[in-house]
Design a protein that fits this description.
This protein has 1282 residues and is an alpha+beta fold. 30% of the residues lie in helices and 19% in strands. It has a 5-stranded antiparallel sheet with strand order 1-21-22-23-24, with no helix packed on it. It comes from Diacronema lutheri (Unicellular marine alga).
Length: 1282
């Protein structure tokens, strides 16, 4: 005998309905024999006649007083067939070297059999281990005195260490005790027994692996050809042995003599592992497969193998120094064939796996069918898939061609009548069994491993599954378990009800992992933890789970009823939230659980840092390229001008570094990830570490204790530092994971916690707005997390313009008040160092942004004022520098804007002939430091457009002063307020014809091109209207504009679509939605083509949406394109000329860099103010001049104000301040003064709109005050000097 070419072995792992492995019944809880357990097992039917009748063999001699094994498996019978050249079948040598028909052996009590190349090991339900076959390397564990065992012999080494699961390699074996220890024996030429350097090449007696003892609790083990893989209760994977083919998963081809943790799986919730001859597959708790090792035949299920980067000297020497010259010569070849880094089998993404079995060079996958979410997984349809080598038909696909990705096994029709119980694989053969007791085999059968042939000479191969025609199996209802390995097979048949599922070999300790199943379980444990011992036990378990990224990911698994992956993650976050709350509430009884959670945060972050560091070592991050500082809107001016520095960059005194963000070029891909999370694996090339690490990090950030700096002072900055070291691909995954959280959890647990901690760190500094990243990394790290959360919030997967939570959740209100905004803006423009809020405008409330816009406008005004003053005092006699110094050309060129069309624009409808026409600014008046606008009330629009059309941009940028012809008022702000209010009212009148009003939305939109009056000059007029509105914003005036939100998105060059159509044309939006949802024949029902009709002045105009649209009918196939084109035309095409001119005029005044700070909603608020009027807030902030706040007349005044109707309150605000809109931030931000003008009289209240002041006598009654006030606000137009 020899082991020159070790035969492959097969190991099978499986999952039950709750994603946990099926385990062997543990003997401890069994009661004494009773009437139910002592009844004799039913007799097996006789075997059909065979050419060589099977001889019943006694497998082993039991102890003198045997313990009674548990029912079912204890009464099982074992059928063996296949290779028997070393008596490894346990039936002696009498049956020959190849047993081609099943042999029934007396093996009651055996629950699992493992086959190696020349030996086998048998596990009983009592935890005893027997071995049989060759022992040249000590693989039978009996020492050197025995070369071969013809009958199985009990290993005394396990008399005090009952075994829960065992596995057999080519010439070595491994067993997991019920206490979670790993014991190995046999050949260890490559260190596969895991006892370290300096040990014997052959470990001839079972020995505990000391490197793992006391460090981990092993849950399962799988032996490959010359390596060993194991999984722990912490869901971690260790490997040891030959690494020549990448089967250890450490990213190289070096051997390991001691078990080493697979760092790429550190955050992956691995349930169990399966090992083939040279490859390995891990099964996760959520039913995914991760493979690594030799993949030349496609046995890894990966479409392509990633290139392996090796050291220049080739592979590292093996643990034993073997494989010298030959291994070095084959390094390049193996590098192309091996995949030493674990990768997710992307082809199976979305398929929930129940079991995986690895053969010599092929792999089987048992997956739930389409009804994978069925409550009873065993009753759901199942599917077997296979990939890899197929020269003997071991894939069962009907041919002998290899499959690089999993392909369905050709199941016979009869095999679909019952659920699949499990799968197993040998060197070149495969098998599955059904819960009704039937067994199917396929693949190579040269040595009888299929059990289908009477004579070995007849054995060839079965290309498709064939039922094993043996009476004890096919003619009997009972539990069946098949164990296959190398070229041998064992079938365990036990009597009993066949309704349950029997999986593969039982494995592991009582609990495969220490995870939490659900929040319900945690809540029950928390309620039941009454005494201190129970609380201590709960603390230990909670500490273990929340300290392990893998266990965190394994806990609170996806809900089966979720409609999508994003929905499942949302439900998982809700489960996790309930669990956190239940655990923290135990603090009222004892602090041990809270202390355990607090400690676990640091531990889990340390493990995640290992994962990230390994990723960085494998793929060095590219050099930083500026990019977006947390994705702030300040990257470029959406109006066309770019701000001076990149808004994303935090510039320090010694260089610059960036807050992590998703590059703009990749934003589309991240949005695609939100719609289809399975694409995440393509982003990372199938590497599982990044995706699972991001998921674990989100679970940590969701912890309520992270928001309490008293409990976790350093953990949030530490997590931020970790995030800042991620590459763009991992950042994208993290953004997607954040976006998938329930909005309430995302806002409360993530955003508010980060915002509060960042604000707390800033408030602890006297120079909150000048810190540098280098010296204040804690603030920078937390800001990095907050910026990433904002990236997630800004993703728009379904509709343009919708955020996950309101943007104001990211704002720090006091930051705008404490930071010196003028200084901040100046520093930002000059590119100064230190923290600058202008780099992160999303931190600022809208009021602070309004202040920044005013700062920018003030700078521009002061520049123009200084230029005007300089021109006034310039030498007047110099011919080369004339005193006139024209400050620029008119905005409309040499041709001033003419009067508006006849009959439009007047505020009172009367003729203006009696009023003197206001003069255009003279040359000298253009040197005035103010832009003086003189208009007539009766011809307000014409005078305004004429004046601004003939003025230069420089002149318009100066502070505005408005004068009404014939009125002696001095404009200190109040006159301008009324002017803009009257101007807006006139511009949007129906007879002016520029905008159309929608009764349903009560909003205006641009009149379509066909509806404009003949002879109109739409570009000039809309340009001037936009310019007037920009002039109002430039001067800090609030306008009562009734535009839909789509306008403000378009002004900032943001896209508009179906989400905004309802605000512009709700009838059209409703009709298009009905068209999309219609389930009949669209063409015959709607009779539409790719045209739209616009009606104007009694004439219909047909417009084609695409070339030859009039001849193209709308059908079910192209209706989505039609609705998109109609929407695009209504929002863009039909008003393209008008809006383009309008936008140019608006941005002529407001195209500063500060405009890029605002969002569309904020721009609308800045232009229009707040329509909601909170007079209680105004009362709280009001000031008094001559009155005391507690005087009777003040009380009466506010009683009258609160009793007014909403229109009357708006009129009062218009009367007192010149505008019926609240400023940014609400009426509480308005400086309102109530002034006493003298004792009681019949005088009406007087408003000083320039100073927001209302003056009135000290009336003697509430009724009189109300009467006088209502008269005043009802007659409030015009100005006069008092």
């Amino acid at each position: 005998m020899g082991a020159s070419v070790p035969e492959p072995v097969a190991r099978c792992i499986s999952m039950d309905t709750q994603d946990e492995p099926t385990r062997a019944p543990s003997p401890e809880p069994l009661a004494e024999p009773n009437a139910h357990t002592e009844r004799a097992p039913p007799e097996l039917p006789p075997l059909p006649p065979l050419a060589h009748p099977p001889r019943v063999q006694t497998v082993y001699e039991r102890a003198a007083t045997p313990r009674r094994p548990p029912p079912s498996l204890s009464e099982a019978s074992v059928l063996v067939f296949g290779a028997n050249d070393c008596a490894q079948l346990g039936c002696g040598r009498e049956m020959g070297d190849a047993v081609s028909a099943p042999v029934l052996v007396d093996a009651r009590g055996v629950c699992s059999v493992g086959f190696g190349a020349c030996h086998s090991a048998w596990l009983t339900v009592d935890g005893e281990v027997l071995t049989v076959g060759a022992n040249d390397h000590g693989q039978c564990g009996l020492g050197a005195q025995v070369e071969e065992l013809l009958t199985p012999r009990l290993l005394e080494a396990f008399s005090t260490k009952p075994v829960a699961q065992l596995s057999v390699g080519a010439s070595h074996s491994a067993a997991v005790t019920r206490e979670g220890e790993l014991i190995t024996w046999g050949e260890s030429s490559h260190g596969q027994c895991g006892h370290g350097e300096g040990t014997d090449v052959d470990v001839r007696k079972p020995r505990v692996v000391q490197a793992l003892r006391g460090q981990v609790v092993v849950s399962c083990v799988a032996c490959g050809g010359e390596f060993t893989a194991l999984c722990t209760t912490a869901a971690e994977v260790f490997t040891v042995g030959m690494g020549r083919f990448g089967a250890l998963g450490h990213g190289d081809l070096a051997d390991r003599a001691l078990p080493a943790r697979v760092l790429d799986l550190l955050a992956v919730p691995v349930l169990a592992v399966a090992a083939g001859e040279r490859h390995c597959v891990a099964l996760t708790h959520n039913g995914e497969a991760i493979s690594w090792g030799w993949g030349v035949h496609g046995q890894l299920g990966l479409a392509e193998l990633a290139p392996v980067a090796l050291a220049p000297t080739g592979e590292a020497p093996s643990a034993r120094g073997s494989g010298g010259g030959k291994a070095a010569r084959q390094t390049a070849e193996r590098a192309l064939e091996a995949q030493p880094t674990p990768r997710v089998v992307i082809a199976l993404k979305g398929t929930k796996l129940r079991a995986v079995a690895c053969g010599g060079a092929h792999t089987l996958f048992l997956a739930h069918g389409a009804d994978g979410g069925h409550a009873d997984m065993d009753a759901a349809p199942a599917l077997v898939l296979a990939c890899g080598k197929n020269d003997a038909g071991q894939l069962g696909v009907g041919d002998t061609a290899e499959r690089r990705t999993p392909a369905p096994v050709a199941m016979p029709a009869g095999a679909r009548a019952a659920p699949i119980g499990g799968i197993a694989a040998g060197s070149e053969h495969s098998t599955l069994w059904l819960t009704d007791g039937r067994v199917y085999v396929w693949g190579g059968g040269r040595l009888g491993e299929l059990g289908l042939f009477v004579n070995a000479a007849e054995a060839a191969c079965a290309l498709e599954p064939r039922e094993l025609p043996v009476a004890p199996i096919s003619g009997r209802t009972g539990h069946v378990l098949v164990c296959a390995g190398a070229r041998s097979t064992a079938v365990l048949v036990a009597p009993g009800d066949a309704t349950g599922t029997t999986s593969s070999a039982p494995r592991g300790v009582a609990e495969p992992t220490a995870r939490f199943e659900s929040a319900v379980e945690v809540e029950a444990l928390a309620r039941g933890a009454v005494g201190q011992p129970a609380l201590d036990a709960l603390a230990r378990r909670a500490g273990a789970v929340f300290a392990s990224p893998a266990l965190l990911n394994a806990s609170f698994a996806r809900a089966a009823g979720a409609a999508s992956a994003a929905g499942a993650e949302s439900e998982r976050s809700a489960e996790l939230e309930r669990a956190y709350v239940a655990l923290i509430q135990t603090h009222s009884r004892s602090s041990v659980v809270l202390h355990a959670l607090r400690q676990s945060v640091g531990e889990v972050l340390a493990r995640l840092e290992e994962v990230v560091e390994r990723e960085r070592a494998r793929t060095p991050a590219p050099a930083a390229s500026g990019g977006g500082g947390g994705g702030s809107g300040a990257g470029t001016s959406r109006g066309g001008a770019a701000p001076p520095p990149p808004a994303a960059t935090m510039q320090c005194s010694k260089g610059r570094s960036t807050v992590p963000t998703i590059p703009a070029s990749a934003s589309g891909g991240v949005r695609a990830l939100v719609r289809q999370p399975s694409l995440a694996l393509h982003v990372t090339g199938g590497l599982p570490s990044s995706a699972f690490a991001c998921r674990a990090l989100i679970s940590v950030l969701q912890s309520p204790i992270m928001a309490d700096s008293r409990l976790t002072s350093d953990e949030l900055p530490r997590a931020g530092k970790l995030v800042r070291s991620l590459d763009s691909g991992a950042l994208g995954l993290l953004v997607v994971a954040l976006r998938s959280l329930e909005p309430s959890i995302f806002g409360a647990r993530i955003v508010r916690a980060l915002r509060s901690r960042f604000a707390e760190l800033l408030q602890s500094r006297a120079d909150a707005h000048t810190w540098s990243e280098e010296g204040d990394s804690r603030q920078a790290h937390v800001l990095a997390l907050l910026a990433l959360a904002r990236e997630a919030n800004e993703l728009e997967p379904e509709s343009v313009g919708r955020t996950h939570i309101p943007r104001r959740e990211f704002c720090i209100d006091w930051l705008g008040e404490r930071a010196d905004l003028p200084l901040q803006y100046a520093g930002w423009v000059q590119g100064g160092g230190g923290f600058n809020v202008c780099n992160f405008p999303w931190l600022l409330p809208v009021g602070a942004k309004a202040q920044l816009l005013r700062v920018e406008a003030s700078i521009r005004m002061q520049t123009e004022v200084a230029r005007a003053v300089q021109q006034i005092y310039a030498p007047l006699t110099s011919a080369e520098q004339p005193a006139t110094g024209a400050p620029g050309e008119p905005v409309l060129g040499a041709k001033p804007a003419g009067a508006a069309r006849a009959g439009s624009g007047g505020s009172d409808g009367g003729g203006g002939a009696s009023e003197q026409e206001p003069r255009l600014p003279s040359h000298f008046e253009k040197l005035n430091p103010y832009f003086v606008l003189e208009v007539r009330r009766s011809l307000l629009v014409q005078d305004t457009l004429r004046a601004i059309g003939s003025s230069s941009t420089r002149l318009l940028l100066r502070p505005l002063k408005v004068f009404f012809v014939g009125e002696p008022a001095i404009d200190e702000g109040g006159v301008a307020k009324e002017f803009f209010q009257l101007l807006v009212d006139a511009l949007f009148r129906e007879d002016f014809g520029m905008f159309e009003y929608n009764q349903a939305t009560r909003r205006f939109w641009f009149r379509q091109q066909a509806g404009l009056a003949e002879g109109a000059e739409p570009q000039a007029e809309f340009f001037l209207v936009g310019l007037a509105l920009g002039l109002a914003l430039h001067n800090g005036q609030i306008l009562d504009l009734r535009f839909p939100p789509a306008l403000f998105r378009k002004l900032l060059n943001l896209p508009v679509g179906a989400a905004q159509l309802a605000d512009v044309d709700p009838d059209l939006a409703r009709g298009l939605e009905q068209l999309r949802a219609f389930d009949g024949d669209v063409e015959s029902t709607f009779c539409a083509d790719f045209t739209v009709t616009e009606v104007a002045f009694g004439h219909a105009h047909s417009i084609e949406l695409k070339p030859n649209g009039a001849t193209l009918p709308v059908t079910n196939a192209n209706r989505d394109e039609y609705t998109e084109l109609v929407t695009r035309h209504r929002l863009n095409g039909s008003c393209a000329v008008q809006f383009s001119a309008f936008q140019r005029g608006f941005l002529l005044m407001c195209d500063g860099a500060a405009l890029s700070f605002v969002t569309p909603d904020e721009l609308e608020e800045l232009v229009c103010g707040e329509p909601h009027l909170d007079f209680k807030a105004l009362q709280a902030s009001a000031q008094y001049d001559g009155f005391r706040s507690d005087s009777a007349v003040v009380g009466w005044f506010w009683e009258v104000v609160h009793s007014l109707t909403s229109p009357e309150q708006a009129m009062l605000l218009q009367f007192a301040t010149g505008s019926d809109r609240a400023p940014v931030g609400g009426l509480g931000k308005l400086r309102f003064v109530l002034q006493r003008t003298g004792p009681d009289s019949m005088a009406l209240p007087v408003a000083h709109t320039c100073f927001n002041m209302l003056s009135m006598p000290e009336y003697t009654s509430r009724a009189k005050l109300r009467d006088r006030l209502l008269i005043a606000i009802a007659n409030a137009e015009g100005f006069g000097l008092q």
